[in-house]
C-alpha cells in the first residue's frame, strides 16, 4: 500500500529527526566535557557544571516527550526494514530506561553523585574511607531504587550492568570471568615465583614531556590517525571524545615513563578510530553510533595491546622513538618489547596494571559491587573484603585504602560498569584471531607500518555497523562465534610464558 | 500580604530558573563556537553546524514556551523590586521578539543566511558582486518580513537596529553620526593634505609570531587579566567568548605587524574584562549579563584606544616589548606612539582602519543599509553607491568590490548592527572624560602600570550593573549626561592634531 508505506516513512523520518536532535545535544555535551578536561581555566567550573546539567536535563526531556513513545509504538506496529528496525529497537530501549525513572529520582541521583565526588576525593586524599561511606551507602540505595523502577523483576545489579551492556547477559560475562580467574591466577603466580628478571629499566631516565608529545604525534601519524578529523591534547585522565567527524585523542606525560604516554595515546587512538569509522551519513542516529562500551573498549585494547605491545610494532617504531630520544639509543627491540609488557606483580593500582593482572582488578571490583548491591556486604566491610581479594588474586595487599578500595572514582556515578574493560580485552583477542585468519599476515603488516588493511577490516566489520546488530549478534557476525575467553587466555599465556621464560 | 508576596516570589523564582536554563544553552553554544574557531579540526564542520543549530532551536523553543509568557504576565501585574523589574523587562523584550516571528520564517532566515555565507565568500574571492546579489536581495526581503512581524508600525530598519540596541533610539545614533561626519571629514582631509610624515616604519621588519604571542601574554599580564578565568588563543578573526567565570581572549599574528596582534589582544581584553566584571551571583540572568553590544564595544575600545594607544602605555610597555624583540631596540616611545596611531589615508578596509577613519567606514555602511532596506537602493546599485561614499568620506575608492562592498560578512546575518562599533568608541571617550574627573590622574596610573583603579571603576559602574538599567539610563547614570559625540571629537582632534602637527 503506497499510502501506508508513505505514512510509515514519514513517521520514521520524524523519529529520526527527533533522535538526531537529541544526539546533537549529547555531542554538544561531549564538546563541553572535552573543553573542561583540556582547555577550560579552573575558574570556569561553576558555570560549566550548570551548562552541562542544563544540557543533560534537556536531553532527558526531549527523549521522554510523549511524542517519542507515540512514534515508537506506531513504527513497531508497521513494516520496517532491518536498519529501521534496529534504530527503533535502540531508541525504544533508551526511551524506556529514561521514562521508567521518576525525574525526582534522576535529580536526587545526580545531586548525590556530584556531592559524592568531593567526598571521595577527600577520603582518598586523607585515606579515610569513613568520609566516603555515607555517600556510597546512599548511592547504593538510590541505584537500587532506580534499577527497581526500570525492572522490578530483575536482580538490580543486572539492571545496572545492562545500562552499559544491554546485549551480553551478565551471566555470560561472569562465566568468562570464571575462566579468566582460573587461567590468570596460576600464570600470575608462576611469573611471581619463577619469572626471570626482565628489562624493566631499559627506558630508565628522564624523558622531557615536549619530546614525548612529538613521539605521541609520530605514533598517531604511523597508525594513520586522520588529523583532519581529530587532534591531540593533554588531560590528567586520558580519554577520547567526539564523533565520526571529529574524534579527539588526549594523553598525559610522565617524564619518568615515556611508555605510559605512548600506550595511552595508542589506546585512545583505538577509541578514536572506532568513532571515525562510523557512518557519516548516519550521524546522530543509532546506525552512526558505537555499539557499546565493551565493544568500544575492544577497539582501544586492540590497538594498545595487539598492535602497540607487539614486537613487530617496536621493530617499526623504535627507530622513530630513538630519533626523538637519542638517550635511548642502546635499547634493543627485545628490551623495548619486554619493557612495555612488564608485569608489575606488586602493583595495587588498576590503571597502572599490565595486560595480565589488570583483569584481576576488574574481577575483584565486579565481585565486591555485586555483593554490596545484594546487601551481602555492608559498606564498612568493603576495605577488608577488598584487601582479602587482592591477596587471593594478586598476592599483594594495598598499604592504604587510598591505594585500595578508594582508588577509583567510578562508584560515585554507577555500579556495574567495570566489566566492560575486560570484555573489551577479551573481544580484542578474539578479533585478532579472526584477523589472523582473514588478512594476509597481519603481523607483517604491522612490522611494515602498513596499518590500512587492519584499520579497514575493523571499520568495515565493526565501525560501519553502528548499532545495527546487538552486541552478541555483532560478535558472532564478525568472529563466527560467541564471546569467549579462549583466545585471550591463549594469547596472554603464550606471550607471557615467552617473555618470562616460564618453561 | 504575606501570601501574595510569597506567590510572586515563587513565580519570580520559576521565571529565573527558566531564564538561567535558557542562558546555559546559550553559553554552551558559545563554547561550541569558540571551539570551532580555535580548536576544531576542519573535518568537524558538518557535525558542528548541526550541533549549533540544534542548540539554537532548543533555546528558541524554551524561550517561547507558553509558560514564559504566563510567568511574565503574572509578574508584571504584581509588585517587583527594581532588580526584579529589570529582569522581567529584559525577558519580556527577548520573549516578544522571539514569539512574534513565525518559526517557518526563523528557519528560512537561518537557511538563507547559511547559504548566503559561501556565496559571499565566493563573490569576494572572485570579485564578483553578482554572485552575492540574489542572496542579499532575498535576505533583505526576509529581514523586512521579520521586522514587520515584530512591529508593523515601525520603520523596519529601526526594528533591525533595535535587535542589537533596544534602548538608544536610532535617531540619537544618527544625530551623533551627523556630528561625527561634520567633525571627522575635515580632520581627515587636513591629515591627508598637511600631515607630516610620521614614523610608520618604526617597527619595520619581521617579528616571529611565537614571540608575538609572548608579548600578547605580557600585555594581558600587565593589564591584569585573570588567567584563572580566561585563556589566550589564536583565531583568524579575533573575538572574545565566555561568561563571568571564563572569558577567553583570541588574537591573530602577522609577522610583518607586531602592533596588530597587540591591539587586537588589548581590544579583546576589554571585552573579557566586561564579562569577568559581571556579577557571579547573577550568572544566567539579565542582571549578570552585559548591557548591549554598543556598551560591550565601549569596553573593548576603551582599553584598546584610551589605554593601549596612549603614550603613557607605551612608556610602560615598550621596555617589555624590547625585551622580547631586541630588534626594536632603537624605537623610541614617541615613535611607538605615532606608529600605533598612524592614519592610513589610502586604506579601504574597515578592520584595518585607524581610530579616526574607522567611523567613516561605519557611517557609510549605515547609510547604505538604510537606503537598501528602505528600497531606495537596488541591490545592483550597492557597489557604485559604496564607491561614491568612500570617495566623499575618505577620498579613496577601492579598486575592487572585494576591497569594497564585499569586505564584510555581516549582511549575511543581519542589517543594522554596524552602528554599535561607533557607539562603543564614542561612549569610551565619554567614559574616559568621566574617569579623568573621578579618579586621581588616571593617565599616571597607566604610566605606572597600576590598572586596578580604572578596572575597578569600570567594573563597579558598568559591569556590575548588568542589564539593571537600560542603555540610555546607564550612560546617564555613569557619566551624568546622555550619549554625546563631543568627548570623542575633542579627543581625536587634540590627539591627531598633535601627532600630525596640524597647526
Structure report:
The structure is a homodimer of 503-residue chains. By secondary structure, chain A is mainly alpha-helical. Among the domains of chain A are: 2-164, Methane Monooxygenase Hydroxylase, Chain G, domain 1; 209-345 and 425-468, no CATH class. Chain A is 65% helix and 3% strand. Chain A is built from 20 helices and three strands. The first copy, chain A, has helices at 2-38, 45-64, 66-76, 82-99, 103-126, 129-150, 156-164, 170-194, 209-223, 258-277, 293-307, 311-324, 333-340, 358-373, 382-394, 419-438, 442-448, 452-461, 471-479, 486-499, and strands spanning 232-234, 240-243, 246-251. The first copy, chain A, has a three-stranded mixed sheet with strand order 1-3-2. In chain A, strand 2 and strand 3 (246-251) form a beta hairpin. In chain A, helix 1 (2-38) packs antiparallel against helix 2 (45-64), helix 1 crosses helix 3 and helix 11 crosses helix 16. Chain A is globular and about 70 Å long. Chain A starts with a helix and ends with a helix. The mean pLDDT of chain A is 95. The A-B interface holds A 20-21, 24-25, 27-28, 31-32, 35, 39-48, 50-51, 53-55, 57-58, 62, 226-231, 242-246, 280, 283-284 and B 20-21, 24-25, 27-28, 31-32, 35, 39-48, 50-51, 53-55, 57-58, 62, 226-231, 242-246, 280, 283-284.
Amino acid at each position: 500500500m503506497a499510502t501506508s508505506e508513505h505514512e510509515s516513512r514519514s513517521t520514521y523520518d520524524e523519529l529520526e529527526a527527533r533522535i538526531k536532535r537529541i544526539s546533537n545535544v549529547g555531542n554538544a555535551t561531549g564538546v563541553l566535557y572535552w573543553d573542561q578536561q583540556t582547555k577550560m581555566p579552573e575558574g570556569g567550573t561553576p558555570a560549566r557544571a550548570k551548562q552541562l546539567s542544563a544540557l543533560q536535563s534537556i536531553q532527558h526531556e526531549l527523549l521522554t516527550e510523549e511524542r517519542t513513545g507515540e512514534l515508537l509504538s506506531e513504527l513497531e506496529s508497521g513494516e520496517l526494514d532491518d536498519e529501521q528496525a534496529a534504530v527503533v529497537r535502540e531508541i525504544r530501549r533508551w526511551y524506556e530506561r529514561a521514562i521508567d525513572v521518576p525525574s525526582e529520582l534522576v535529580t536526587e541521583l545526580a545531586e548525590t553523585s556530584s556531592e559524592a565526588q568531593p567526598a571521595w576525593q577527600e577520603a582518598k586524599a586523607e585515606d579515610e574511607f569513613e568520609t566516603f561511606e555515607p555517600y556510597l551507602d546512599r548511592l547504593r540505595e538510590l541505584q537500587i531504587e532506580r534499577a527497581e523502577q526500570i525492572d522490578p523483576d530483575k536482580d538490580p545489579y543486572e539492571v545496572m550492568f545492562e545500562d552499559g551492556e544491554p546485549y551480553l547477559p551478565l551471566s555470560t560475562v561472569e562465566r568468562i570471568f570464571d575462566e579468566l580467574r582460573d587461567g590468570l591466577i596460576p600464570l600470575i603466580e608462576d611469573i611471581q615465583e619463577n619469572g626471570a628478571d626482565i628489562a624493566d629499566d631499559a627506558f630508565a631516565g628522564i624523558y622531557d614531556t615536549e619530546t614525548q608529545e612529538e613521539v605521541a604525534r609520530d605514533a598517531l601519524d604511523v597508525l594513520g590517525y586522520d588529523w583532519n578529523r581529530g587532534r591531540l591534547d593533554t588531560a590528567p585522565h586520558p580519554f577520547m571524545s567526539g564523533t565520526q567527524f571529529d574524534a579527539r585523542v588526549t594523553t598525559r606525560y610522565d617524564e619518568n615513563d615515556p611508555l605510559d604516554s605512548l600506550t595511552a595515546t595508542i589506546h585512545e587512538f583505538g577509541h578514536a578510530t572506532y568513532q571515525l569509522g562510523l557512518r557519516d551519513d548516519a550521524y546522530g542516529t543509532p546506525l552512526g553510533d558505537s555499539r557499546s562500551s565493551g565493544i568500544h573498549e575492544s577497539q582501544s585494547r586492540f590497538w594498545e595491546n595487539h598492535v602497540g605491545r607487539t614486537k613487530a610494532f617496536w621493530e617499526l617504531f623504535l627507530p622513530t622513538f630513538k630519533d626523538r630520544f637519542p638517550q635511548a639509543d642502546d635499547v634493543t627491540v627485545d628490551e623495548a618489547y619486554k619493557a612495555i609488557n612488564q608485569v608489575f606483580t606488586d602493583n595495587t593500582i588498576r590503571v597502572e596494571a599490565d595486560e595480565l593482572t589488570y583483569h584481576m582488578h576488574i574481577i575483584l571490583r565486579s565481585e565486591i559491587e555485586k555483593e554490596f548491591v545484594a546487601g551481602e556486604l555492608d559498606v564498612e566491610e568493603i576495605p577488608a573484603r577488598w584487601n582479602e581479594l587482592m591477596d587471593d588474586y594478586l598476592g599483594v595487599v594495598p598499604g592504604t585504602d587510598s591505594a585500595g578500595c578508594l582508588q577509583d572514582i567510578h562508584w560515585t556515578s554507577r555500579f556495574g560498569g567495570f566489566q566492560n574493560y575486560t570484555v573489551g580485552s577479551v573481544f580484542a583477542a578474539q578479533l585478532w584471531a579472526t584477523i589472523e585468519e582473514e588478512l594476509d599476515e597481519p603481523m607483517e603488516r604491522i612490522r611494515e607500518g602498513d596499518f590500512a588493511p587492519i584499520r579497514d577490516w575493523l571499520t568495515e566489520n565493526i565501525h560501519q555497523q553502528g548499532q545495527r546488530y546487538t552486541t552478541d549478534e555483532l560478535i558472532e557476525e564478525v568472529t563466527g562465534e560467541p564471546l569467549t575467553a579462549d583466545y585471550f587466555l591463549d594469547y596472554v599465556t603464550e606471550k607471557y610464558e615467552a617473555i618470562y621464560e616460564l618453561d
